[in-house]
Amino acid sequence: MEHSTGPAQALEAGFEPPYIVFDSPAKTPAELVRALSLGVAVNADNFQELSRLDEILATRRSGSRIGVRINPQVGGGSITAMSTATATSKFGIPLEDEDNRRRLLQAYRDRPWLTWVHTHVGSQGCPLDLIARGIAKAVEFAEEINAHLGRRQVTGIDIGGGLPVNFDGDETTPGFDTYVDHLREYAPALFSGKYEIITEFGRSVLAKNGFIAAYVEYTKTVGGRPIAITHAGAQVATRTVFAPDAWPLRIEAHDPRGRAKHGRPVPQDIAGPCSFAGDLPARNRALPLLDVGDLVVVPDTGAYYFSTPFHYNSLPEPAVHGARVDADGRVTFRQLRPAQPVHPAPALAGR
Fold first, then answer.
1. What is the pLDDT of residues 264-310, one digit of tens each?
2. One-character DSSP codes across 151-197
3. 125-163 b/e with 16+ CB inside 10 Å = b?
4. Any residues with CB less than 8 A from the CB of 269 and at least 6 apart, and which?
5. pLDDT tens digits, residue range 132-185?
6. On the CB side of 62, how many CA atoms lie within 13 Å of its CA?
7. How many CB atoms lie within 10 A of CB 332?
8. CB within 8 A of 229, min separation 6: which ones?
9. 3-class secondary structure for 69-135?
């Protein structure tokens, strides 16, 4: 959970403190105090944060699992912004930088309450070999700590998330079984039974469990190319609009009753409502020609697309609904997050 709001949102969502991991690189003293008082797991991002933890733990006890996030510096994947184990990543303590390994070993010696090692290489755009090599370096370092100290101080390894998602089709690839095979090859000690393991999967668990649906409000032809103006643009598909090559999404065309359209594919733009020309979730995409009132469906948006709305033009966040399919095939819906209300501006006080 890498958010500056601390564990508050996870607690509000109903998660118990022992199942929450606080990884933010910018934890405030107040957030650390609260996390440690609740028993939330904390991974320190840097040596200064370790000193801050020293000050807090000098006056209080905590049941939190506490570790250090290391950067194994194994390199990046095809999406630079999503690669968190490069030589200059902002996350964690770089393991291979001059003198850091010695300083980390001393940090664990001086702090018996440091019992975890954490790393995260990246997810989307990162090949499994790269991810597994980064985790292997974390496991090797945990072994090195325990050997250096002559005792089993490190008892757990947080291997982060790291499983990319296939956005090209409905198949769930790569699978978790493939991921485990890579980990067994590169980091067999992870499966020795000596360590508790924590994972922080997000996108790979949730992405394919959600979709965005938006009505086509208008259609037009510009420069010979059809354009469908919809209500789904940068405010709900921010990464795709601003980095379409790195975050392409499929688009499905449905009629006003939700039935799939099967007409001849026509290259067309799918535009959102934001007031800049680049607000296009899809460019020159071949689809059955869209008409006013049709539905555009964007699959695989159950993860970061729902959780990272973009408030350009002060557009409110849309409602999120959950669906459940019973054993008899009956589908029921429940609102999970209401649409963001529009609050009136406060009256200006006169002099």
1. 999 999 999 999 999 999 999 999 999 999 999 999 999 889 888 99
2. S----EEE---------SSSS--S-HHHHHHHHHHH-GGGGSSSSEE
3. bbebebbbbbbbbbbebbbbbbebeeeebbebbbbbbbb
4. 225, 226, 227, 228, 280, 282, 283, 284, 285
5. 999 999 999 999 999 999 999 999 999 998 889 999 999 999 999 999 999 999
6. 28
7. 9
8. 216, 217, 218, 219, 220, 271, 273
9. EEECCCCCCCCHHHECCCCCCCCCEECCCCCHHHHHHHHHHHCCCEEEEECCCECCCCCHHHHHHHH
Whole-number Å distance between alpha carbons of 22 and 7: 7
Tell me if residue 8 falls in helix, strand or coil: helix
CA distance 122 to 302: 19
Is 260 exposed, middle or buried (CB count within 10 Å of its CB: 0-12, 13-18, 19+)? exposed
Residue 214 contacts by C-beta under 8 Å, 6 or more apart in sequence? 230, 231, 232, 295, 296, 298
Mean pLDDT on 62-90: 91
Question: 59 is written with which tokens?
Answer: 């006056």
The closest of 205, 294, 279, 297 to 242, measured between CA atoms, is 279
For residue 34, the one-letter residue type is: R
CA distance 261 to 289: 9
Q: What angle, 0 to 180 degrees and rounded to 10, lies between the N-to-C axes of helices 29-38 and 47-57?
A: 60
Task: Please tell me the distance from the alpha carbon of residue 52 to that of residue 58, in angstroms, as a whole number.
Answer: 10
User: What is the Cβ-side half-sphere exposure of residue 220, based on CA atoms within 13 angstroms?
Assistant: 7
Does the pLDDT at position 4 exceed 60? Answer: no
